[in-house]
Amino acid sequence: MGMNDTPKGERVHIAIFGKRNAGKSSLINAITGQDISVVSNQKGTTTDPVYKAMELLPIGPVMFIDTPGLDDEGDLGELRVEKTKEILRKTDVALIVADGIVKDDFSMEQELEQYLSAQDIPYLWVWNKCDLGMSSFDENKQKEQGVCVSTITLEGIDTLKEMIPKLLPKEEEKVLVRDLVECGDVVILVVPIDKAAPKGRLILPQQQVIRDLLEKGAFPLVTRETELEEVFQKLSVKPKMVITDSQVFAYVNKVTPKDIPLTSFSILMARYKGDLQGLAESASCLHNLHNGDTILMAEGCTHHRQCGDIGTVKLPNWIKEYTGKELSFETSSGGGFPKDLKKYAMVVHCGGCMLNSREMKYRMKEAKQQGVPMVNYGILIAYMKGIIERSLGLFPEIKI
Q1: Between the CA atoms of 52, 56, 59 and 65, what dihedral angle is there, to the nearest 10 degrees?
Q2: For residue 365, which of 380, 381, 391, 347 has the smallest C-alpha distance?
Q3: Structure confidence by residue, pLDDT tens digits, 93-139
Q4: 134 occurs within a structural domain
Q5: What is the CATH number of the domain that holds 372?
Q6: Is 11 left (phi over 0), alpha (psi -120 to 50) or beta?
Q7: Could you read off the pLDDT of 134-183 as tens digits, one per residue?
Q8: Is the Cβ–Cβ distance between 312 and 305 less than 8 Å?
Q9: Mapping DSSP to helix (H, G, I), strand (E, B) and coil, where does residue 75 land?
Q10: What is the pLDDT of residue 83?
Q11: Which residues, in sequence order, are CB contacts of 164 under 8 Å at separation 6+?
């Protein structure tokens, strides 16, 4: 991702579903105006989801996802269909692509339609190959809730691009931190530079918080924890708040004057992505752990793990030290997230900066439905360090 690119998790995800050879790959190429997906008359050409970031006005940054066929066959086919089902968890808008020149059995597409309706995912039928003529069945269906297109002549493509934004529900603008500050406020951001820090750049939540503060006209002041005391001594104005990396929560809490609000990047991301209240409530479930319990450490991205990695080393060690229990830990990363969570006594999740809100809310919903407490990295660290009340003080509506 380039320095000025919109993060994947901030883009509206538009997924394209349908049977093999319905023209899904041709459609995404026609919409984007680029040869993104491989097109072939051979069924099953798309074997893995293909992602393409672009701008679609008036939405703005979007992510198109080309998926394998719903009717894929064989052992590998089943795996591809499972991949397609994973995409549904992060889909903001679905396009159901059907071959418009055949009188086919559309039960698979209709089953998908029922699922999308049940999950409140907006969708649109796209009848492809209209340049070759349409069956009477498809014409009736198209009149109800679809659009006819040709990926050869590009007929209907502009109409489709105009219809997609209308499917999105109107939502309040989400903000990370700028609703908590005023223009001209000084905000201190504490960013450790250690072996786990990416060389030459800041991690995504830090970049996003800086951008949000700049949009408000506030003054973000970035420092390592080792210089934090000196920063306080040199400042002639009282900072509005301090936002820290969770790994140095305890030290920053000790150094920061008690009359200055303190929180973490991870807690801000929890509020931004989903249910801060539910995540905060689950922290106390640490006291319910028993010897032999297994905890899932879940991350929304994949990265090279360094010695002292937060998710696989530091947090597990802190949890075992805090609880005094013999515990086991398993890890999931990226798009992978177990369907069956019942084997876990708790899910500990990262801030989810690389996941869109729908995927993050899906994970929280699954954990809740299966009776497994789920908590966020930053919230859990604050709880174990005895500073949970202070770290959530900026959000008086949150009860723990």
Answers
A1: -30
A2: 347
A3: 999 998 877 666 788 888 889 989 988 899 999 988 887 765 544 45
A4: yes
A5: 3.40.50.11410
A6: beta
A7: 554 445 455 456 888 888 889 889 999 999 988 887 766 778 999 999 99
A8: yes
A9: helix
A10: 75
A11: 14, 56, 59, 93, 95, 124
Buried b (16+ CB within 10 A) or exposed e, 129-162: bbbeebeeebeebbeeebbbbbbeeeebbeebee
CATH number at residue 186: 3.40.50.11420
Give how far Cα 230 sits from Cα of 193, 251, 287, Å: 17, 14, 38
Closest CA to 350 of 368, 364, 365, 371: 364
In contact, 107 and 70? CB cutoff 8 Å: no
Question: Whole-angstrom distance between the N-terminal and C-terminal Cα of the chain?
Answer: 37
Please say which residue of 205, 236, 268 terminates a domain.
268
394 within some domain: no
The answer to whether residue 400 scores a pLDDT higher than 60 is: yes
> Global pTM?
0.77
Torsion-angle region of residue 221: left (phi > 0), alpha (psi -120 to 50) or beta? beta
Q: Are 161 and 188 found together in one domain?
A: no
* Residue 30 domain flag: yes
Same domain (yes/no): 139, 63: yes
204 and 65 in a common domain? no
What is the distance between the alpha carbons of residues 365 and 78, in angstroms, rounded to a whole number? 25
Range of the domain at 27: 8-167
288 & 264 share domain = no
Give the pair of three-digit tokens for residue 144.
Answer: 């109800």
Rounded Cα–Cα distance for residues 123 and 146 (Å): 9
Which pLDDT does position 107 carry in this prediction? 83
The percentage of the chain sitting over the pLDDT mark of 90, rounded to a whole number, equals 46
Residues 163 and 184 in one domain: no
